[in-house]
């Protein structure tokens, strides 16, 4: 990912010290629940699709008595040699994100938030889980939105296999095909997105960004998909790290098959089966996911929603 684009994304999403000022809210009081959310996107390098959700979390959070600030972390572009060692590739990403979080905490001018929470979507949930044991202090909770944590279904495997082959073969097919392929990817992304989200995509997905996305997908296939139906690397019960993990899932999700949510503690999972895995493509789903995340935040940190039990969100429709 170009350095300039990384800097723009960080500057855009770092509402570090006074998130309430964005919406004209009064300054915090002693009764406020200060929460900082580190958000890990699911689509590497297409960060603009998450802008609306992060804005909603801050605005709706204030209405519920939580002073919420957010940081959307960015992922470094992987060098080609990491394809030979996907485990090292993910360690490389996690180290870069860790440095972002460390720099963010060092640059903070206001008091530290009362609570820190990690929220990861899809592939971002895997990175958040990978980073969790290295963060000090340990986040009070982690929320995994439709996560890609281990072996996907056959549909997910097929998508990863196609992405892997596309990445490995395009260098031999010339730069002209790179442009055609990136325009096709951009068209598909815009086709599945709402008009509102299409505007946020700006100039579209260029060949360099597409290559970066496919490179990550090739590593995902080997590293995450290669784990099989094994969740031993995920602290589902919060026993190892002391951070309570929550699962938001949807039935039929090729990236979170049934064995994932069947293994998760029932009291810390939420069924959002009316919301698709690619929820960031539609602002209506942003609103629903925001309400679910805030429900979990209320359960974890308290406030006037703190005593509510997590509910099957289909009952709200």
Give a description of the structure:
It is found in: Lipid droplet. Belongs to the AB hydrolase superfamily. LDAH family. InterPro entries: AB_hydrolase_1, AB_hydrolase_fold, LDAH. Its main location: other. The chain has a single domain (32-228, 272-299), classed as Rossmann fold. It is built from 10 helices and 6 strands. The chain has helices at residues 3-13, 51-63, 86-107, 123-131, 154-169, 175-192, 195-200, 207-223, 258-263, 283-301; strands at residues 33-40, 66-72, 115-121, 141-145, 244-249, 269-271. Helix 2 crosses helix 10. Strands 2-1-3-4-5-6 form a 6-stranded parallel beta sheet. It is α/β, with parallel strands linked by helices.
Estimate the global geometry from the Cα principal axes.
globular
Low-pLDDT parts are 7-31, 303-309, 311-317
Q: Count of DSSP E strands?
A: 6
Helix share, percent: 40-55%
Distance between the termini: 39 Å
- Average of the residue pLDDT scores: 82
Helix/sheet category: alpha/beta
So, CATH architecture? 3-Layer(aba) Sandwich
